[in-house]
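Cross-check.
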Amino acid sequence: MSGTLIKICGLSTPETIAAAVGSGASHVGLVHFAKSPRHLSLSDAAVLRRLLPAHVKAVLLVVNPAPESLTEAVRTIAPDVVQFHGAETPDALARFRAETGIETWRAMAVRDAASLAEVAQFRGAADRVLLDAPASSLPGGNGTAFDWSLLAGWQAPVAWGLAGGLTPANVADAIRLTRAPLVDTSSGVESAPGLKDVDKIAAFCKAARL
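Predicted model, tokenized:
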């Protein structure tokens, strides 16, 4: 059995929360970004967060949040992790982490080897970097993958995870090829944008643990 951590992102209903927890996900992502089809109000996110058992971490996803809105979101949702998915700087992340003590992640777009070199700037600032495909209409959740061969021989300077275009059909290969310690899916377990499929969630978690 794989020891890979599994994050199912963009959940919006009690049923999909239950599916992720029951299938063995280690992390559940709650999106607070108005432009996303997976956006949750703070009150709705707080309700879903309370459904999670202690062993499954709640990840609050934000994109370039204003300081006051981030403070309100953290107070309302009480996430275990905050995932920054915009242009947030290492200094901003380090300051947030120092002030709150909350586990802090930063998503980064991977276009080429030079993109991977930029990960080092988050050493000491982020607890984990999520390697994702370049943004298109949205910062993430677009269902596209980057070239995983870029990770061959890569020595990660920080803890990391793999995102972008992961599905039940390809996640096992992705783990085998990249040795990712964490895999993150959103659109890959949907039947339509923002609409998670409980069977796909179960299939993804099963494949990730093969």
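The helical segments are 14-23, 42-49, 67-77, 90-100, 113-117, 171-178, 198-208. The mean pLDDT is 94. Passed to J.P. for a second look.
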